[in-house]
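Sequence and fold:
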Amino acid sequence: MNLELIAVEIGDYVKNRTSINEINRITKALFEFPFREFPNKSITSVRAQLIYDWIMSLNEYDCPLEEKEKLLISFAKRLNPELLSFLETFGVVEVEEPTSERFDSYQFHPEIIKHCRKLYMEGNYFHAVFEAAKVYNSLVKSKTGSTKDGKSLMLDAWSPDKGLLKISSSTTETDTNFQDGIKFLSAGLMSAIRNPTAHEPALNWPIDEQDATDILSLVSFLLRQYNKTHGKS
């Protein structure tokens, strides 16, 4: 892998498509190795030189080649997704982690695993998040014995004052605020996720893998709070 040539070519390709702030933001999030300067008289753009310096710093980083390739791919992808095809011409190819391994690595709540794993692995993200929201709604309804549903159910069930689902005694302001937060997160889940997925065709309301993962993480968090409560049953 000729990182010097890659550094020059990437810098030249994106120098007018990014900013110094964006480059610094990405590198700060990705790279733990120290930054070094590698002056190159053939580079006239400040942004291209900055990209060159970071990639050459990566070249000097003492780590396995496989890790360098992963870091380079992550850097390029965040700078401009078009760079992935560009890197392939240098033999640097992104290896997709199997969907099952990605899903399992998130350590979702058991109810999410039970009801959503198969759908997620099939790429059926729309129905995966719909199932998660339905499961959460059903559990809250069962535990409280309420006849309400969706948003109104959550606002009642998690109310710090009269709700049947209590994470703590709510004797402090912090406890009350947390309980109130769970109430609104739960109600928001019903309004933003369960209701649209229940009434909109999947083609009209697309959900990609990243959005599905974020939503399932939220429901998983709410389910863990639900597990700490005592309800009617």
